[in-house]
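Task: sequence design from structure.
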Protein backbone atom coordinates (compact mmCIF):
# COMPACT_ATOMS: atom_id res chain seq x y z
CA UNK A 1 0.00 0.00 0.00
CA UNK A 2 2.73 2.48 0.97
CA UNK A 3 4.76 1.97 -2.21
CA UNK A 4 1.62 1.83 -4.38
CA UNK A 5 0.46 5.16 -2.94
CA UNK A 6 3.89 6.64 -3.65
CA UNK A 7 3.99 5.49 -7.29
CA UNK A 8 0.39 6.66 -7.81
CA UNK A 9 1.33 10.04 -6.35
CA UNK A 10 4.27 10.34 -8.73
CA UNK A 11 2.11 9.37 -11.73
CA UNK A 12 -0.81 11.62 -10.84
CA UNK A 13 1.25 14.66 -9.89
CA UNK A 14 3.43 14.71 -12.98
CA UNK A 15 0.37 14.03 -15.16
CA UNK A 16 -1.52 16.93 -13.55
CA UNK A 17 1.42 19.35 -13.68
CA UNK A 18 2.75 18.42 -17.12
CA UNK A 19 1.02 15.60 -19.01
CA UNK A 20 0.73 11.84 -19.32
CA UNK A 21 3.22 11.98 -22.19
CA UNK A 22 5.83 13.49 -19.85
CA UNK A 23 5.25 10.70 -17.31
CA UNK A 24 5.67 8.09 -20.04
CA UNK A 25 8.85 9.79 -21.30
CA UNK A 26 10.23 10.01 -17.76
CA UNK A 27 9.63 6.29 -17.18
CA UNK A 28 11.22 5.45 -20.53
CA UNK A 29 14.25 7.56 -19.58
CA UNK A 30 14.57 5.87 -16.18
CA UNK A 31 14.25 2.42 -17.73
CA UNK A 32 16.70 3.10 -20.57
CA UNK A 33 19.41 5.03 -18.76
CA UNK A 34 19.08 3.78 -15.17
CA UNK A 35 17.45 0.33 -15.55
CA UNK A 36 14.69 1.36 -13.15
CA UNK A 37 11.12 0.22 -13.70
CA UNK A 38 8.08 2.10 -12.43
CA UNK A 39 7.65 -0.45 -9.61
CA UNK A 40 11.23 0.08 -8.43
CA UNK A 41 10.82 3.83 -7.98
CA UNK A 42 10.03 3.74 -4.24
CA UNK A 43 13.48 2.23 -3.66
CA UNK A 44 15.27 4.56 -6.08
CA UNK A 45 13.81 7.99 -5.34
CA UNK A 46 17.28 9.53 -5.42
CA UNK A 47 17.60 8.58 -9.09
CA UNK A 48 14.12 9.93 -9.84
CA UNK A 49 15.00 13.24 -8.21
CA UNK A 50 18.29 13.40 -10.08
CA UNK A 51 16.50 12.79 -13.39
CA UNK A 52 13.89 15.45 -12.60
CA UNK A 53 16.65 17.89 -11.69
CA UNK A 54 18.47 17.28 -14.98
CA UNK A 55 15.26 17.68 -16.98
CA UNK A 56 13.55 20.54 -15.12
CA UNK A 57 16.37 22.21 -13.19
CA UNK A 58 16.68 22.57 -9.43
CA UNK A 59 13.63 24.77 -8.86
CA UNK A 60 11.43 22.81 -11.23
CA UNK A 61 12.37 19.50 -9.64
CA UNK A 62 11.76 20.93 -6.15
CA UNK A 63 8.30 22.12 -7.19
CA UNK A 64 7.46 18.72 -8.67
CA UNK A 65 8.77 16.73 -5.71
CA UNK A 66 6.93 18.92 -3.20
CA UNK A 67 3.70 18.41 -5.15
CA UNK A 68 4.35 14.63 -5.18
CA UNK A 69 4.94 14.67 -1.42
CA UNK A 70 1.72 16.65 -0.78
CA UNK A 71 -0.34 14.19 -2.82
CA UNK A 72 1.40 11.23 -1.16
CA UNK A 73 0.68 12.53 2.34
CA UNK A 74 -2.94 13.15 1.37
CA UNK A 75 -3.29 9.55 0.15
CA UNK A 76 -1.84 8.30 3.44
CA UNK A 77 -4.07 10.58 5.51
CA UNK A 78 -1.08 12.43 6.96
CA UNK A 79 -0.64 16.13 7.58
CA UNK A 80 1.84 17.65 5.15
CA UNK A 81 4.31 20.21 6.48
CA UNK A 82 6.35 22.04 3.87
CA UNK A 83 10.09 22.17 4.43
CA UNK A 84 11.88 23.79 1.46
CA UNK A 85 15.16 22.02 2.17
CA UNK A 86 13.57 18.54 2.39
CA UNK A 87 14.00 16.12 -0.50
CA UNK A 88 11.42 13.62 -1.72
CA UNK A 89 13.40 10.84 0.00
CA UNK A 90 13.21 12.78 3.27
CA UNK A 91 9.45 13.40 2.88
CA UNK A 92 8.92 9.67 2.27
CA UNK A 93 11.09 8.71 5.24
CA UNK A 94 9.15 11.16 7.42
CA UNK A 95 5.87 9.63 6.24
CA UNK A 96 7.10 6.16 7.28
CA UNK A 97 7.96 7.50 10.74
CA UNK A 98 4.59 9.22 11.11
CA UNK A 99 2.75 6.05 10.08
CA UNK A 100 4.76 3.89 12.49
CA UNK A 101 4.21 6.35 15.32
CA UNK A 102 0.46 6.57 14.69
CA UNK A 103 0.04 2.77 14.60
CA UNK A 104 1.67 2.22 17.99
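Answer:
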Amino acid sequence: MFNDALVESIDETITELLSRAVVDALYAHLETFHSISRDELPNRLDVLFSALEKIFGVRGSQTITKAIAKKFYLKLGLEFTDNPSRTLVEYVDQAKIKLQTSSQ
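The domain at 2-102 is CATH 1.10.1200.200 (Non-ribosomal Peptide Synthetase Peptidyl Carrier Protein; Chain A).
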